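> call design_seq(struct)
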């Protein structure tokens, strides 16, 4: 009976441990900037959403083979300013991100990459931006719902979740104060958008392993949504794209510790017809338009303004 009781308890313990995400079961690492790096173990998930925006489709299977460490929070002002002290001048711009422990904003994609390079040299460990697939995998933490909290996001995550384009209201961007996901990662839904390493481009339907996005593009992916946007932008699957030179009050970043996957990027998709054979050479209209080629003539005025104002 004693042995049976021991085996029964052992089975319960193993069942409970199996239910704990593997990243929690491992020890985190704290680096010289005080960043807590959470280990993310390999796994597989369905990337995208059938019920979200068109660019989140098609949903496709992704395997994460290379383990990595992801920062528990976004990079803060105090951490970033060890790399670039001049950035302190931007604290409080538009009333945002004043304190040391608030997420850094007004950082371009190129700034974030340079920060990772500086931190790699400082620590002797590889740091980089996460791939888009790594980001979504880490955000979901084993969930398949709209948010890692389920299909609703609790009020605790609210940071003025409404569209504001010009003048934001004062809101704290302090990191790590909202509940973390199952893997111990904070602020994956909201606070600030986060730069990823990938070029923004359409998804493919085939399964992929450690994908790194498209080989080139115009925009870089940002993920997670931010303060002063509506809730749908905060979903696990939601995608955003921004010019890498953009320096915005909505965007910050978090870092990965680990080598970049050596997967080949996806080629650029074929241009749609409306974007094909476009060039900037002026057209010779001296002989009029060719009857054999389509051309754009408009706009055609339908309302003719009289030369002299009418008197009544």
């Amino acid at each position: 009976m004693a042995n049976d009781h021991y085996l029964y308890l052992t089975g319960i313990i193993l069942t409970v441990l199996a239910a704990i995400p593997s990243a929690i079961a491992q020890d985190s690492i704290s680096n010289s900037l005080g960043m807590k790096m959470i280990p993310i173990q390999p796994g597989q998930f369905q990337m995208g959403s059938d019920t979200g925006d068109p660019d989140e489709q098609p949903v496709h299977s992704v395997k994460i083979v290379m383990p990595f460490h992801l920062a528990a929070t976004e990079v803060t002002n105090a951490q970033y300013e060890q790399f670039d002290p001049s950035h302190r001048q931007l604290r409080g711009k538009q009333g945002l991100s004043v304190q040391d422990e608030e997420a850094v904003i007004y950082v371009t994609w190129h700034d974030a990459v340079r920060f990772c390079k500086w931190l790699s040299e400082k620590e002797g460990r590889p740091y980089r931006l996460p791939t888009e697939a790594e980001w979504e995998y880490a955000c979901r933490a084993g969930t398949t719902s709209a948010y890692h909290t389920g299909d609703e996001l609790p009020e605790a995550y609210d940071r003025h979740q409404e569209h504001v384009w010009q003048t934001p209201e004062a809101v704290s961007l302090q990191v790590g104060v909202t509940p973390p996901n199952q893997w111990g990662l904070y602020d994956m839904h909201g606070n600030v958008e986060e730069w990823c390493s990938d070029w923004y481009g359409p998804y493919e339907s085939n399964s992929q392993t450690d994908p790194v996005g498209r080989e080139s593009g115009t925009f870089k992916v940002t993920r997670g949504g931010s303060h002063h946007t509506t809730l749908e932008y905060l979903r696990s699957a939601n995608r955003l794209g921004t010019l890498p030179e953009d320096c915005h009050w909505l965007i910050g970043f978090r870092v990965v510790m680990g080598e970049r996957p050596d997967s080949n990027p996806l080629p650029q998709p074929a241009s749609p017809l409306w974007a094909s054979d476009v060039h900037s050479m002026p057209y010779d209209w001296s002989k009029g338009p060719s009857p054999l080629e389509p051309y754009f003539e408009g706009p055609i005025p339908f309302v003719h303004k009289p030369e002299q104002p009418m008197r009544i």
